[in-house]
Amino acid sequence: MVAEVSLPSAVTMADILNAVSVGLIVVDQDQNVIFWNGWIEKHSGVAATGAVGKRIDEAFSEAPGKTFLNAISNLLQYRLPVVLSNALHRAPLPLFSKPGDASGNERLHQSITLSPLVINDQGCCLIQVTDATTSIKREKILRSHSELLRKEATTDGLTGIYNRRFFDEHFKIALGNSRRQNTSLSVFMVDIDFFKEYNDHYGHVAGDKTLIQVAATLRRQLMRASDVVARFGGEEFVLMLPNMAEDAAYRFAEKLRLAIWELNIPHEKSRLDHRISISVGFSHYQKMENTNPDELLNTADHALYEAKHRGRNQSCFMKLPAHPNRTSYAAS
């Protein structure tokens, strides 16, 4: 049941339609403007007296977009409502934020709905325009927050390189690709030598600065988008490089070691020339019979411990085991 309300004699329907916070335009079958409300006046800078009677493509200070004009033509022809996506058509009409001053202002983002309307037995088009600026800004903020959360979920907060979670996920993907495509995959485990002693002597603030510097230096050694370096935990890092020959892996491990050595970061408590150094353990997978690619990460980790056992500040290579209990190694 619809209640009928009698309007006071001094109030007209036009008064109401001019007061709403929605733009309303009505055009007749010939696309001539027959109604132009206050919201449209306010944001277009064109008074209703200057718009009514003109064709819609001539009523504004500049012609509306072609998509908008085509939508009106289609509605008048087929009598079907049309909604213009504000993602694809953000500002088809010259509507601006500052009341009564359209010049030089940024256009409002608009949501536009066109509906068929019958007035005096004549088919017309009702155009409803709302300001979508706030919702689009909110959408941008949400996207920005989403990107920030994604970055936080995959990036180490201290060093800015990838974290363990990112590495674990992408290592599985890279290993699967290597198996399917018969390509190689090399993994390098890196540990800063005597880092506990460094923290104890210089303090954790200095330790954090050194971690950041080492991480940045390791990252600079990478040459391809497919190469990955991540903080594995504490003072330990991991690098994963696909499509690298085994002899190139030896050279790369030494490149990592020398890059950190040449930073010449003082370390009074190190037994290695009193500066920061790293130990590197690495292994290499190439699809072949009787090797176990699932042991690639563990084998690189064992190689790292062997490098440390041999005195640190060196790299050590271990071959993937042909059988679970048969691992051989060789120092580079």
Protein described:
α8 packs across α9. The protein is built from eleven helices and eleven strands. A six-stranded mixed beta sheet has the order 7-8-6-9-10-11, sandwiched between helices. The protein has a five-stranded antiparallel beta sheet with strand order 2-1-5-4-3. Mean pLDDT is 88; it is low at 1-5 and 325-332. It is an alpha+beta fold. Helix content is 39%, strand content 20%.
Keywords:
332 residues; alpha+beta; 20% strand; PAS
In a nutshell, what does this entry contain?
Helix content is 39%, strand content 20%. It is of the alpha+beta class.
Helix content: 25-40%
Structural class: alpha+beta
The major β-sheet equals: 6 strands, mixed
Unreliable runs, pLDDT <50, ≥5 residues?
1-5, 325-332
Computed CA radius of gyration, to the nearest angstrom: 34 Å
Query: How many individual helices?
Result: 11
User: What is the beta-strand fraction?
Assistant: 15-25%
Task: For the largest sheet, list the strands in their spatial order.
Answer: 7-8-6-9-10-11
Quaternary state reads single chain
Shape: elongated
Number of strands: 11
How would you spell out the order of helices and strands?
HEEHHHHEEEHHEHHEEHEHEE
For the termini, the CA-CA separation is 89 Å
Overall mean pLDDT: 88
Pfam family, one: GGDEF
Protein name: diguanylate cyclase
Catalytic activity: 2 GTP = 3',3'-c-di-GMP + 2 diphosphate
EC number: 2.7.7.65
